[in-house]
Amino acid sequence: MKISFYGVRGSIPSPGSDTCKYGGNTACVYIETASGQDLILDAGTGIRNLGKRLIKKAGTINILLSHGHWDHIQGYPFFMPIYQPDRHICVFTSTSGDHGQICSLFDQIDGANFPLKATELPSRSECITADFETRLSKQNLCVKRATLNHPGGGYAYRIDEDGTSCAFVTDNELAPPGKVATTYEQWVDFCRSVDVLIHDAQYLEADMPHKHGWGHSLVSQARQLAIDAEVGCLVIFHHDPDRTDTEIDFIQKDNEQFFRGKQAPSISLCATENVEITLTARHNKNTLIEVGQARPD
């Protein structure tokens, strides 16, 4: 399994000299399974660059949408595969929250907010809100989901394949002040022993209590979840748009110091655009986790 990061920011794109190291695009993660299946986690502005890679590759594209907030869908109209005739794109989307079964990815391509209408696209796209696990299992994909603690709802995803695993938990508040959709103990079970945990950690203690209830977690909370769930690699994700590269460097150094001497996780990263994590299952041994640069194609 290969996991590549194309967008790692939250809330709004943040281009500039202070954010070029980690990247300023909003949420988009690409997973290429060992069997060759393509999974995209969210469709923020990072999906535009991913499209340049996938336009050269045939096959069905599966998009797992955590929720319909702008920073997780706004790149979709610029995703090149949607302009390929007969390209099949399956969008698995949340039915929770106020929008019911409306698929926001398609709704924004309405002829008013974007020059084209979704019905004019040459690709064969469909929005899937029912029989989620059954539809994916037909492609030999084992995907489970859990409900996010986030205004408007949404889903986290866990992907397991041939002894490797990844959990994508963004826009999730581990200790929300109001109604709890998924308890901390349930998150520990959901993320238990995954090789890679990608978790929202947009805030620091200095951001509180003003932003308590906004639907995002503290870095310290994501760290503790990684320990309690005994994950192999923690990826701090959904960086605040005002967080500079220098400030994220500090978080990375603090992570390394915090986890030193602890059994899990063995690796901790602050999500960075164009970084690729390769997972290789090994018989009777822990999964091999390698971190490098994503392929330019």
By CATH reckoning, the class would read Alpha Beta
**Tally of individual domains:** 1
Helix content: 10-25%
Based on CA atoms alone, the radius of gyration comes out at 18 Å
* CATH hierarchy: architecture: 4-Layer Sandwich
Task: Characterize the largest beta sheet: strand count, sense, and whether it forms a barrel.
Answer: 8 strands, mixed
Total strand segments: 14
Please give a structural write-up.
The protein has one domain: Metallo-beta-lactamase, Chain A, CATH 3.60.15. The strands form 2 sheets. Strands 6-5-4-3-2-1-13-14 form an 8-stranded mixed beta sheet. A 6-stranded mixed beta sheet has the order 7-8-9-10-11-12. It has 6 helices and 14 strands. It is an alpha/beta fold and 297 residues long.
Describe what is shown at a glance.
With 297 residues, the protein is α/β, with parallel strands linked by helices.
